[in-house]
Write a structure and sequence with these properties.
The protein contains 6 helices and 8 strands; from the N terminus they run βββαβαααβαβββα. Helix content is about 35%, strand content about 25%.
Length: about 170
């Protein structure tokens, strides 16, 4: 059984770009934006923690293979895809990238559905600033949080730990 089996698979399309999404939970909305190489088991463990705290979590799969381990080969595969993707290369040049507009569209949709003052956003490494943190809109609540290092697994109760992002929740 896959760890993502308990999540609802969906998709979101904006400006002709479609990415799969995974959704779980009830409560205010939080978008968890994965890091390179993708939705790893550690990122998924962190997202489960956010769900346990009473949030509706939506995780878009922007690149990589969901649930693939964070190995060197998976990382290289994802980096190659990100480097040639127009969605992310504009970010590297200091311009607003299409992925930022896509993530804001996802936030607007989630906010429209769930209501409240806005949705939260937690980005990892490259994807945090590339997405909502560079140009938050009305749909995001507060300053989007980013995590600049890899998730640590096996501490405390054995669940994923992202200290900076966890503290923000």
């Amino acid at each position: 059984m896959s760890a993502l089996d308990s999540w609802t698979l969906g998709s979101h399309t904006a400006d002709g770009v479609t990415h799969p999404t995974y959704r779980k939970g009830r409560g205010p909305g939080v978008i968890v934006i994965h890091e390179i190489p993708g939705i790893t088991p550690a990122v998924l463990a962190f997202a489960e923690e956010v769900v346990e705290r009473g949030f509706t979590v939506v995780m878009p799969s922007l690149f990589g293979r969901p649930e693939a381990p964070a190995t060197v080969s998976e990382t290289v595969r994802s980096i190659v895809g990100v480097c040639v993707s127009r969605e992310f290369t504009m970010f590297a040049m200091g311009r607003t990238s299409p992925v930022a507009a896509w993530l804001r569209s996802l936030a607007r949709e989630l906010h429209s559905e769930l209501g409240g003052p806005g949705v939260g956003a937690v980005g990892m490494c490259l994807t945090g600033p590339a997405g909502l943190a560079r140009s938050p809109g009305q749909e995001t609540q507060g300053r989007p949080r980013t995590q600049s290092r890899r998730p640590r697994v096996g501490q405390g109760e054995g669940r994923g730990r992202l200290p900076g992002a966890r503290a923000a929740l």
